[in-house]
């Protein structure tokens, strides 16, 4: 499974999802889905905009995890 770590990067930069949406010209709805890992796809164009605004690499935003790791974290909550 691919996990999106936008929230961690925003936190490190002391920025909000709202700010990122405005700067990257991405709707709050779509960005919210990404941040909550509730989407199955993302346009390369959007990914590039996010990386440009956050001044980071794609590898900083996307993380590949095993399904067992995610299930384990869900059980801990």
Write the layout of secondary structure elements.
Layout: E1 2-4, H1 6-12, H2 17-24, H3 28-35, H4 44-54, H5 58-61, E2 62-64, H6 67-76
Provide key terms for this protein.
77 residues; two-stranded antiparallel sheet; 434 Repressor (Amino-terminal Domain); mainly alpha; 62% helix; globular; single chain
Polypeptide structure, described:
The chain has 77 residues and is mostly helical. It has one domain (2-76): 434 Repressor (Amino-terminal Domain) (Orthogonal Bundle), CATH 1.10.260.40. Helices cover 62% and strands 8% of the residues. The chain has helices spanning 6-12, 17-24, 28-35, 44-54, 58-61, 67-76; strands at residues 2-4, 62-64. It has a two-stranded antiparallel ribbon with strand order 1-2. Helix 2 packs across helix 3. The chain is globular, with a radius of gyration of 13 Å. The relative contact order is 0.22. The model has no long low-confidence stretch (mean pLDDT 89).
In short:
The protein is mainly alpha-helical. It has helices spanning 6-12, 17-24, 28-35, 44-54, 58-61, 67-76, and strands spanning 2-4, 62-64.
């Amino acid at each position: 499974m691919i996990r999106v770590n936008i929230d961690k990067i925003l936190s490190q930069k002391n920025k909000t999802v709202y700010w990122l949406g405005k700067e990257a010209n991405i709707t709050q709805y779509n960005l919210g889905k990404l941040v909550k890992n509730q989407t199955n796809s993302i346009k390369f164009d959007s990914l590039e905009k996010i990386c440009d605004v956050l001044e980071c690499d794609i590898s900083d935003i996307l993380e590949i995890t095993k399904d067992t790791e995610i299930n384990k974290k869900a059980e801990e909550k």
